[in-house]
Amino acid sequence: MNKIVVIFSLFLIQVMNAEVNLPSCFSDGMVLQQNSQVKIWGWANPKEPVSVIPSWNKKEYKTEADSNAYWELTIETIQAGGPYEVEIKGYNTLQLTNVLLGEVWFCSGQSNMEMTADWGIDNKEEEIAKADFPEIRFFRTAKVTADYPQVNAIGNWETCTPETMRKNSAVAYYFARRLQEIEPDVPVGLIVSAWGGTPAEVWMPKNVFSNDKSYYKTAIDRKLSEYCPVEPSKTFNSMIYPLIGYKIAGFLWYQGESNVGESTYQQLFTELIQSWRKLWKEELSFYYVQIAPYQYEGEGTYAAMTRDLQRQVLALPKTGMVVISDVATLNDIHPTNKKTVGTRLADMALKQHYNVLKGTVESPAIQSAKKVKKGVELTFEHNESLHFTTKENLFEIAGNDGVFYQAKAKIVEGKVIVGCSKVKYPEYIRFAWGNAVQSNLFNEAELPASTFKIAIP
To answer: CA 254, CA 442: separation in Å to the nearest integer?
Structure first.
């Protein structure tokens, strides 16, 4: 019998043998989003009266289970704090303890999001030893797949200790640590649903593919992996769908390596973000990590194309992209400096989502290009103290024939002037265009510019 079917069957037996029952995400040690309207749901006997009483306001919120034995209600949370208790009453009573109110972030993607301290991060033993932060909590979903959407995710809430930190997402951990450096009294809950090697398609609802069958073909034609699922929606059904509606501040995403070289990735990733926001019924902040330069097998520049497609997804509102080319390990697809990655994600959230951090936290972002007498003039957002860190020329220019030639570049009053004597009439310009090419254009925050390729008007 399929593993997920066995687990789900056992869960149904548990529901039938009890009165009031909850999904695993509502349990001792959980973190609920502060200052919000938070949905709580579960199961009970049909028409059974159900009430929820949180200790922070002692209000009683009432409902009853429907004919399918499902119930839900919305409770109010106050500002960050705890620990609190939440009582759920029906014909039986459940008492949830050690509950915190704080900020909850949903973290997903493939191996670089999943990667733990035990896997191998910088200063591993030292970082593990000091990871005693009782107001950081992890909810890590088990890696299971399903053909159809499930009602319960397999997982449990864990308090951050050296023993639990070492087996949880390092990026998520460092994100939480940075948030607490700025807001030390605010607990952080991290829901982590990640699986190494997975393409984006497996994390998306099936109805997305009804409009474009090519996604299915791309996924199925992809070389099958013995380590992870590749069929569309397989992990969405079991690791995302059961958690829809859990009140969160936003999403963190680190994925793309398994879609390298696919020209549809921008559209695919855009639809993933939009589908999740639609399911959560809120335009939630969505911050993601651009894949790092890496020496992929074979020739070509397909990884640069993927980085550029990720950059273009920034056209969506309330998104932010962290560029990490400067901490890339070109011979290892898993950079070990996860602290920098998590910190940059957190700084973006602290500035754009929470409005508590000032200054530049974003990488220089290409804004426009125009032809000038000496070549092409490029303007960038977040261009404070723009500078090159090496003398290497990473800009290339092409004419109508599409043949790119290396160009010389200089910075003049915060703009980059690029020229090439071999291209009299420039039509296209690109930067850091190679699988393993690391950016050398930085701003005052010492953040690298993204790979890009654009047409020149």
So the answer is: 22
- Dist CA 55 CA 78 (whole Å): 11
- Helix orientation angle between 338-348 and 170-182, rounded to the nearest 10 degrees: 50
* Cα gap 311→415, rounded to integer Å: 20
Per DSSP bridges, beta strands 285-289 and 250-254 are parallel
For residues 237 and 100, what is the distance between their CA atoms, to the nearest angstrom?
Answer: 28
Residues in the chain: 457
Whole-structure pTM value: 0.94
**253, 109 Cβ separation under 8 angstroms:** yes
DSSP states of 216-273:
HHHHHHSPP-SSS--STTHHIIIIIGGGTT---SEEEEE--GGGTT-TTHHHHHHHHH
Strand 428-431 to 415-419 pairing: unpaired
Interval 107-144: pLDDT, tens: 999 999 999 999 999 999 999 999 999 999 999 999 99
CA distance 109 to 93: 37
DSSP β-bridge partners for residue 102: 33
Phi, psi of 100 (to 5 degrees): -115, 150
Q: What is the DSSP string of 346-373?
A: HHHIIIIIS----S--SPPEEEEEEEET
Ranges of residues in the chain with a pLDDT under 50 are 1-16
- Report the pLDDT value the prediction gives residue 211, as an integer from 0 to 100: 65
Tokens, residue 71: 């119930």
Q: Which run of H or of E encompasses 314?
A: none
Which residues contact residue 318 at a Cβ distance below 8 angstroms, ignoring those fewer than 6 apart? 283, 284, 285, 286, 352
CB of 279 within 8 A of CB of 244? yes
Residues 6+ apart with CB under 8 A from 16: none
The two tokens of residue 84 are 């609190």
How are beta strands 408-412 and 452-455 bridged, if at all? unpaired
Q: How far apart are CA 42 and CA 152, in angstroms?
A: 10
For 276-312, how does the pLDDT look when each residue is reduced to its tens digit (9 = 90+)? 999 999 999 999 999 999 999 877 899 999 999 999 9
User: How many CA atoms within 13 Å lie on the side-chain side of 79?
Assistant: 2
**Could you tell me if 68 and 135 are in contact, meaning their C-beta atoms sit under 8 angstroms apart?**
no
Mean pLDDT of the chain: 93
